[in-house]
Amino acid sequence: MIEVIDIFRALADPTRLRIIALLRTMELSVGEMAQVLEQSQPRVSRHVRILCDAGLATRRREGSWVFLAPAPSALAVPLFGLLDVATAGQGDHQQRADVARLAAVRADRTAAASRYFAQHADHWDAIRSLHVAESAVEARMHAVLGDNIGRLVDIGTGTGRMIELFGSKAAHTVGIDRSPEMLRLARSKLSESGAEKWELRQGDLTALPLEDSSADTVILHQVLHYIPTPEAALAEVGRLLAPGGRLLIVDFASHDREELRVQDAHARLGFSDRQMGLWFVAAGLSLDRTETLDGGELTVKLWLATRPALMKAIAA
């Protein structure tokens, strides 16, 4: 149990107050935090441990990196508000320097993302050329999902595009990807876009790092064809969805482009409506709607499924 005295002891240090202020601006790795504070990583790690032990910050491992964020606890949030009131109008040289170095961290992330996109642009353009324009796909996704998003989980978030599209309509958004590199790209892109209310986590689609019934909307956009066992992935999504929650899958209809399996690591060459429907039933979901988007050598499909709401008990 966290003692109140431990919380105030944790805050009674200028460096730890700086850390809290920085984390409330954006999620940072330990290395990035050390860069902004101009302190060694071991020293920063010690301060972070004190803040985490006091319930004021959280740590999350992503590959070989550890990322830090402010804790969303019932005690931490009002304390952060108190700090805002106490420090209003008191910006000093140290604070301005921290903000400038934080901007440098943002710039480093953006530069890394630009290099990655430049290296892979030809590959992605080749895939996109095989199907209808992505703008048409995104417009149909908006039409299917509408504005009632609730708690959104984007699985296989990649560059965070789905969070950009639907995050503003969501109460909260979590993006999950197994690749630390892709998560760093998404973090850079979302930080630059000004998107709010999002967090990113590393995880496998068949073992999601989220609690049962913690999502109202789940999106799998061009992800399922990379999964060797789609049925296991959909069962995991069924666990994740709250009663009445919705799953939107965007992927390819069945096709015979074998080179995508060989060159691009596609584990599945698209999906049929029948196969998708059987997997939904096994996962405790019901297929509500299908959409077909022709316009290229590959046909894009949208499948919308729902986890049935709990039945109300009938009085005897």
Description:
- It comes from Sphingomonas paeninsulae.
- One of its GO terms (biological process) is methylation.
- With 316 residues, this protein is of the alpha/beta class.
- The chain folds into 2 domains: 4-104, Winged helix-like DNA-binding domain superfamily/Winged helix DNA-binding domain (Arc Repressor Mutant, subunit A, Orthogonal Bundle); 130-306, Vaccinia Virus protein VP39 (Rossmann fold), CATH 3.40.50.
- It has 12 helices and 10 strands.
- It has helices at 4-11, 14-23, 30-37, 41-53, 76-87, 93-128, 134-145, 161-166, 180-193, 230-240, 258-264, 273-282; strands spanning 28-29, 57-62, 65-70, 150-155, 170-177, 198-202, 215-221, 241-252, 286-293, 300-306.
- Strands 6-5-4-7-8-10-9 form a 7-stranded mixed beta sheet, with helices on both faces. A 3-stranded antiparallel beta sheet has the order 1-3-2.
- Helix 3 packs across helix 4, helix 3 (30-37) runs antiparallel to helix 6 (93-128) and helix 6 (93-128) crosses helix 9 (180-193).
- The protein is elongated and about 60 Å long.
- The protein starts with a helix and ends in a 10-residue tail after the last strand.
- Residues 311-316 have low confidence and may be disordered.
